[in-house]
Write a structure and sequence with these properties.
The protein is α/β, with parallel strands linked by helices. It is 44% helix and 12% strand. The chain has 4 domains: 3-124, Response regulator (Rossmann fold), CATH 3.40.50; 161-307, Rossmann fold (3-Layer(aba) Sandwich); 311-377, Helicase, Ruva Protein, domain 3 (Orthogonal Bundle), CATH 1.10.8.60; 418-463, Homeodomain-like (Arc Repressor Mutant, subunit A). The chain has helices spanning 11-22, 34-43, 60-71, 85-93, 106-117, 145-157, 174-183, 205-210, 227-230, 246-258, 284-289, 295-301, 318-329, 339-347, 353-368, 391-409, 419-438, 443-450, 454-463; strands at residues 3-7, 27-31, 48-52, 76-80, 98-101, 164-167, 192-196, 235-239, 260-261, 270-271, 275-280, 304-307, 336-337, 372-373.
Length: 469
């Protein structure tokens, strides 16, 4: 049995939490103001505090600072209706154990409180973050649970001087995450050096990264300092690190381990103390298995991972992002999204993710000039290419898992035959069903999606015992 203090000026939230927690046998105290909470904690220190940020009188964040000297390591869970990155950073910076975004799922909130009751003192994790800084003009935005999880991870890891691996499809905002980590870290006054691996010529990438001595190769007429040396006391951001050559991977690993750089063609070594944030849209685990990426470098990078969800998995963020991009392009507020335009945005697959949404909004604002943006203002949606995401890798993994399961089910003495036909027999019905779902039952459109003739689709549906209705 534990004592839990709930501070919120919404009676419905206090009542719901009180009822749910009372079932666990806890003693619940509720109040609507931070002033009352401070008075209550003078008399008794609770085991967990749940407190809203927006309160009448003293706000929750201010009260949180005042509570710290009184309740010590007692976990404090903040509640906010404005779940952006700045709020996450402020809450964790001031000692919050966790924060919940309204409206929240009651069971999820109870699980967080239960976890807090069993948690180690929050003081074990240093999270002094300069919360006055702004991430960028294109600030990370999102009210979806998936993006709230990203904000939490940024807030927790920013101050921890460890490598961070940011994964996600192209256009999801991996560099924005890297910038946020840098700006909320102890290295925020140092340089942020972006390294775009795909844009570098293989023949000169080591010179770009590590620098070179004068005369080390044709054209090296002067000594040059590399990007990693320029990142000293700051952050080096490797964009698409999965594209880096194996020989360069070996040298990069050594630099990460020793903090010493050997310029190409030089005998001296130079020290450089930088933090590495790496990003990729590729499946590095699969690349390690295929011996296309060094396992030791992967483990060195994968100390802390942040995965950014694709836009199609957080549709609730589309209106928020669209409005943000519109206001950047049209500060006057004259251009607005019509209901049909918003419906069109919500129906798109967003293969290019947030980058594509920004471009679509920019196009619409240009052609609309003023007034209301309609669905006709948008350019056609993009089609996915093989390099747009890690989906091909995921498919390969799924097929490999299926293959291994089949082999394991066959006795060692038996021959392996017919797996190809068996795979097609099992996979084809799912492919047909998804095409029909995507086309809303339109067989002609489904056949076009699959790249087969309508009559062929009809026969395949019949063979798979799938209804055409």
């Amino acid at each position: 049995m534990s004592n839990i203090l709930i501070v919120d000026d919404e009676p419905s939230i206090c009542w719901a939490l009180e009822q749910a927690l009372a079932e666990d046998g806890h003693i619940i105290t509720t109040t609507a103001t931070a002033e009352d909470a401070l008075e209550i904690t003078r008399r008794q220190i609770p085991d967990v505090v749940v407190m809203d940020i927006r309160l009448p009188g003293i706000d929750g964040l201010t009260a949180l600072e005042q509570l710290q000297s009184r309740i010590g390591a007692t976990p404090v869970i903040m509640i906010t209706a404005f779940g952006n990155l700045e709020t996450a950073v402020k809450a964790i910076n001031r000692g919050a154990y966790e924060y919940l975004t309204k409206p929240f799922d009651l069971e999820d909130a109870i699980q967080v409180i239960r976890k807090a009751l069993n948690a180690k003192p929050r003081g074990e994790l240093s999270t002094e973050i300069n919360s006055t800084q702004v991430v960028s003009e294109q600030e990370l935005l999102g009210k979806s649970p998936a993006m709230q999880a990203v904000f939490r991870k940024i807030a927790v890891v920013a101050e921890r001087d460890v490598p961070v691996l940011v994964t996600g499809e192209s256009g999801t905002g991996k560099e924005l995450v890297a910038v946020a980590i840098h700006r909320y870290s102890k290295r925020s006054t140092g340089p942020f050096i972006p390294v775009c691996v795909p844009a570098m010529n293989v023949s000169v990438i080591e010179s770009e990264l590590f620098g070179h001595a004068k005369g080390s190769f044709t054209g090296a007429i002067t000594e040059r300092h590399g990007l990693l040396e320029a990142a000293n006391q700051g952050t080096a951001f490797f964009d698409e690190i999965g594209d880096i050559e194996m020989t360069t991977q070996i040298k990069l690993l050594r630099v990460l381990e020793t903090k010493m750089i050997s310029p190409v063609g030089g005998n001296d070594q130079r020290s450089s103390d930088f933090r590495l944030v790496a990003a990729t849209n590729r499946n590095l685990e699969a690349m390690v298995a295929e011996e296309k990426f060094r396992e030791d470098l992967f483990y060195r990078l994968n100390v802390f991972r942040i995965e950014i969800p694709p836009l199609r998995e957080r549709p609730e963020d589309i209106p928020l992002l669209a409005e943000h991009f519109m206001r950047n392009l049209d500060p006057t507020g004259e251009v607005q999204l019509s209901p049909t335009a918003l419906k069109e945005l919500n129906s798109r697959p967003w293969n290019g993710n947030v980058r594509e949404l920004r471009n679509v909004i920019e196009h619409a604002v240009i052609v609309t000039r003023s007034g209301e943006i309609s669905a006709k203002s948008f350019p056609p949606p993009t089609t996915r290419t093989s390099d747009d995401s890690g989906s091909t890798h995921q498919l390969n993994i799924a097929i490999e898992n299926w293959w291994n399961e089949q082999l394991q089910s066959i006795p060692k003495a038996a021959s392996v035959e017919g797996l190809y036909e068996k795979f097609l027999t099992e996979a084809e019905p799912t492919l047909l069903s998804q095409a029909l779902r995507l086309s809303k039952g339109n067989r002609t459109e489904a056949a076009q999606i699959l790249g087969i003739h309508r009559q062929t689709l009809r026969e395949k549906l019949k063979n798979a015992n799938l209804s055409e209705d």
